Amino acid sequence: MAGPVGAGKSTFVRAVSEIAVVDTDRQATDETSLLKQKTTVGFDFGRLQFSPDMALHLYGTPGQDRFDFMWEELISKAHAYILLVPANRPATFRKAHLIYQFMSERVALPMVVGLTHTDCEEAWSADNVAIAMDLAEPTQRPPFVEVNATEPDSVTRALSALIQQYILITGAA
Predict the structure, then answer these.
(1) Which residue has the higher pLDDT, 74 or 107?
(2) What are the two backbone dihedrals, phi and then psi, of residue 67, each rounded to the nearest 5 degrees?
């Protein structure tokens, strides 16, 4: 999972991990503290086991630019990713687009955009977020899914959409 600060990356991983999530949350000391008390400074790690020899490893990146070295490290070994975007905070759409560009310049991976906080009154629609993120071109627009990072069923649906995108793009079955 990648995305701006406060998009729900850590919460997403915690919602479905079968193991105790490994996190690197620390006290927020910059403008992030206006949104939340703690922030990810390395990565979050969780796992979802499907069978004895099949598991999905879940990594959540930090949202702050100063930790972008972790974005590079994590995306270089990823098979697919979800870009979480808080639909209720239009000020983060540009940041989300920059993260999307950062990832796209380094790897060509299946991905989906997960819109969080869509239940908030001021949330933007998927179409409007896509326009704001310069992803509205139908041939280049990745799938958008709504996700409530606090609800395991919603997170599972988002992961299913990502797996479907992975199968579609890679031909894996």
Answers:
(1) 107
(2) -110, 25
- Domain locations along the chain: 9-170
SS3 assignment for 22-40: ECCEEECCCHHHHCCCEEE
Strand segments, DSSP code E, in 61-143 are: 81-86, 111-116
Q: Which fold has domain 9-170?
A: Rossmann fold (3.40.50)
Decide if 91 contacts 32 (C-beta within 8 A): no
54: β partners:
51
Is the pTM here over 0.85, yes or no?
yes
Tell me, rounded to whole angstroms, the distance of Cα 45 from its chain centroid.
13
Q: pLDDT (tens digit, 9 = 90+) per residue, 78-128?
A: 899 999 999 999 999 999 999 999 888 998 899 999 999 999 999 999 999
Query: CB of 14 within 8 A of CB of 153?
Result: no
Among residues 121, 9, 131, the alpha carbon closest in space to that of 63 is found at 9
The better pLDDT of the pair 16, 36 is held by 16
75-97 burial, b for 16+ CB within 10 Å, e for fewer?
beebebbbbbbbbbbeebbebbb
Alpha-carbon distance 126 to 60, whole Å?
22
Could you tell me how far CA 22 lies from the centroid of its own chain? 17
Residue 27 has pLDDT above 70, yes or no: no
The dihedral sign for the CA sequence 92, 151, 145, 60: positive
